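Tutorial handout. Part one gives the primary structure; part two gives the three-dimensional structure as tokens.
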Amino acid sequence: MTKLSNDNLNICHFRDCLLGKEDQQLLNSINIDLDQFRQHNAMELNKILKTKVNCLENNIKILLEDIINLLKLRTDGLGIEQLERPVQLITYANDISSKHKELRSKVATLEKEIAEYNY
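Part two.
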């Protein structure tokens, strides 16, 4: 059996230490790269989400403008012009509701008179 000299043992130990150090450096490098990759992905995801939020906000704005324009067209068609505030619309709605009640009452009265007249 061959005896290993002390120098040979020290060289092997030194080599093992170097390999351990290189392994640790490799792991550190991988961890740094992984953190950078995660940060980059998070930034990209945030950018995509912000773009989607902006698109949705623009769509909501456009829909609100369309709704307001359609509401103005409908109120103009009913003869209600120059609506400036929601309170005015509520007032007109209450007026329409009271007129409807009055007309129903008149119709009921007229139907009753017609029924009495036919007998």
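Part three, for discussion. DSSP finds two helices and no strands in the chain. The mean pLDDT is 84.
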